[in-house]
């Protein structure tokens, strides 16, 4: 495992096997780890939405952040930074979440669903790849949300403190925190196991930089397959884990899959929206959580967008259910695709204008 390929496969394998174990010990089937779903549950637990079946302060999320924070501090890589297009990042994070909740899962859960036989996730995978391909077209034309700059140390500690606060609220369980009594939000692995899994994933992925969006982007853009091996590791080890620990729930097919629907068009379009947003943001929801633990306030703003998107989705009936995508959700996905494409086009146009102005000034200076 000293070579790069071995390390990235092992890091993906850790995610996959831990996801299977979390299902074995209580997390929802096919949802051992789902970053979008977990932020959605946290939003519900904090009362930001009132969908009673998805309210729980998932300890895995603080684990991702604090695991990455601890590893970054140990390796001297904790660097408070940010300030690049925060409003655009918030909007992109918001619509990434809308797309994920119409599909019913983040890109990581998409892989985990496939590893338990849910073929509906194939439509999500095709959509995610298509969305990333669209995002790459903007990247090729110079799309950039700008350079992050050094921030005060207190800014970098914001998300680790948030993680600690969520854990304290989970343990104290004050009356103003909501806990589901039925549905996915009521299904949870023991707190210490869930937190430990989150810490391990956060620490390891801080080192390997594994990202679903980054892996697909690098294949298409520069023919680099390094991160693909990590994604394969997630799938293979989750598959092995499910066959070993969760065989009673393993089922290959499109119908009667847990917390999923077979509305194929909207599985595709929901993840296409998530793919475009992730490509423009430079990372999937899990990668954003790891970056936030390293002190990246741009990633923290993206997480705020994800959380707001989750609350909005359940307050206004945008999130899908096993019955399929709602009309409101379909409209939101179409609007989201238009908005993220407009952001991509607007930024590229601005970059081109600046380049043109720079050339014009250079020409004037030369003439003078």
Automatic annotation (TrEMBL):
Residue intervals passing through the bilayer: 87-110, 122-139, 160-179, 185-205, 226-245, 265-286, 298-319, 331-352
Domain of life: Bacteria
Designated name of the protein: Uncharacterized protein
Keyword presence, Transmembrane helix: yes
Swiss-Prot/TrEMBL keywords: Membrane, Transmembrane, Transmembrane helix
Entries under NCBIfam families matching the protein: seleno_YedE
């Amino acid at each position: 495992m000293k070579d790069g390929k071995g390390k990235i496969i092992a890091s993906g394998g850790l995610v996959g096997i831990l996801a299977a174990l979390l299902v074995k010990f209580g997390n929802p089937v096919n949802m051992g780890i789902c970053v979008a779903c977990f932020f959605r549950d946290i939003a519900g637990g904090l009362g930001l939405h009132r969908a009673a079946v998805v309210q729980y302060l998932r300890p895995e999320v603080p684990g991702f952040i604090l695991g990455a924070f601890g590893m970054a501090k140990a390796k001297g890589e904790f660097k408070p930074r940010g300030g690049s297009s925060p409003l655009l990042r918030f909007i992109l994070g918001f619509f990434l979440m809308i797309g994920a909740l119409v599909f019913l899962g983040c890109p990581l859960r998409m892989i985990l669903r496939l590893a338990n036989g849910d073929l509906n996730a194939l439509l999500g995978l095709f959509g995610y790849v298509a969305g990333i391909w669209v995002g790459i077209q903007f990247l090729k034309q110079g799309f950039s949300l700008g350079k992050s700059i050094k921030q005060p140390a207190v800014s970098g500690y914001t998300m680790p403190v948030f993680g600690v606060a969520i854990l304290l609220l989970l343990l104290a369980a004050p009356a103003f925190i909501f806990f589901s009594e039925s549905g996915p939000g009521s299904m949870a692995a023991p707190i210490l196991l869930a937190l430990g899994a989150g810490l391990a994933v956060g620490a390891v992925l801080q080192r390997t930089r594994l990202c679903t969006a980054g892996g697909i982007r690098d294949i298409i853009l520069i023919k680099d397959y390094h991160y693909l091996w990590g994604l394969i590791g997630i799938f293979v080890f989750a598959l092995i884990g499910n066959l070993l620990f969760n065989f009673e729930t393993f089922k290959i097919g499109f119908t009667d899959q847990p917390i999923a629907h077979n509305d194929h068009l909207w599985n595709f379009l929901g993840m296409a929206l998530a793919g475009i947003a992730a490509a423009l943001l430079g990372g999937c929801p899990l990668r954003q959580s790891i970056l936030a633990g390293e002190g990246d306030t741009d990633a923290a703003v993206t997480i705020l967008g994800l959380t707001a998107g989750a609350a909005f989705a359940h307050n206004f009936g945008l999130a899908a259910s096993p019955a399929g995508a709602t009309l409101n959700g379909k409209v939101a996905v179409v609007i989201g695709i238009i908005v993220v494409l407009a952001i991509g086009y607007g930024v590229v146009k601005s970059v081109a204008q600046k380049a043109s102005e720079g050339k014009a000034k250079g020409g004037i200076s030369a003439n003078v």
